[in-house]
Specification:
4-stranded antiparallel beta sheet, alpha+beta, Elongation Factor Tu (Ef-tu), domain 3, 6-stranded antiparallel beta barrel, conserved putative lor/sdh protein from methanococcus maripaludis s2 fold
Length: 386
Amino acid sequence: MSQELEMSIPIKKTVLFVFIAILAVSYYYFKQPNPVTVNTYKVKKGLVKATVSNTRVGTIKACRRAFLAPATGGEVAKLHVKEGDVVKERQVLMEVWNEDLKAQVELQTAEVTAKQAQAREACLLAAGSERDAVRLKKLQQYKHIVSENDVDDAVTLAQANKAACQSAKAAIQVSQSRLKVAQAAVQRTMVFAPFDGTVAEVNVELNEFVTPSPPGIPTLPAIDLLDVSCLYISAPIDEVDAPRIKLGMKSCVSLDAFTEKRCSGIVTRIAPYVLEKEKQARTVEVEVKLSDPKEMQDLLPGYSADIEVILNSKEQTMRVPTDSILENNRLMILGSDGVLEERNFEPGLSNWNYTEVISGLDIGEQVVLSIGLEGVEAGNKAIAEQ
């Protein structure tokens, strides 16, 4: 009996030990947090561009735009165009009542004609008087049948008639100048197209009275003319980024009205001054022009647009998504053992989408994108979302 008791004691100890071990393993298993499911990006090579973008929304503008109004006030007598009309350079768009001024043009035209006739008469008389004076001189010199006094009278008359001819010609010039003044007065009552374009707005009506804008007080233009065959994008760039932009740099353009990005843009102008409309965000105006005619289709002046100037680019370089990067150039890596690891890396070129990896990572490693998710911390278990 005592021998059976002595044999059962070690067995009981062994069973108790196993039971305690099972409890410990179970406690550890159930207390350990479940692996976090995360989105990952497998490191690979691709295109990375260093870019600069505008700070506030830009605008598509026409290369040429004219706010037109007559130089003199009056009643709108003729309106030759309507909104949407395509016009040619120097085409008359509208006229203010100018019948009195046109009458002055007709009067001055007739005066020029009369002065020209008077000049011809005076010059013919001058030519005849000069011939008479020459004949009398010859008769007086060779045959002495004409007195010297008669010769003097003939010469004086010829000179006087010559002066009258010159005076008549000068009178023609005076009349022609008066005609130009009258014609200019008529021109001031008319509005001409300064270039080939499209009428965007007409802000006057027939028989309406219009007046020129007073100095320093802008008023609504009578006609708004646009050259829509040439468009560009004007956008403000932060003063910190502006020095890195150079003329001729390539640029992409994004528009709210269209989904596709247009990347044939070229920087054509960098403003030589800094705007300070908002003291907290001083900017430099940069203009970009699309070089591909297909990308200019369907664009209209006034569309909102953003520009992305390409400072530098690399075709096949190791890269990671920019939004996966933590402060101080840190990344969260999902190791092959399913444990999260925090790692520093050396960045290169960068934009809103991708950042170049110079060192610190290898091709194929998994970078965690869900960096804001609860439980995404170094040392925790995680699994990649399929």
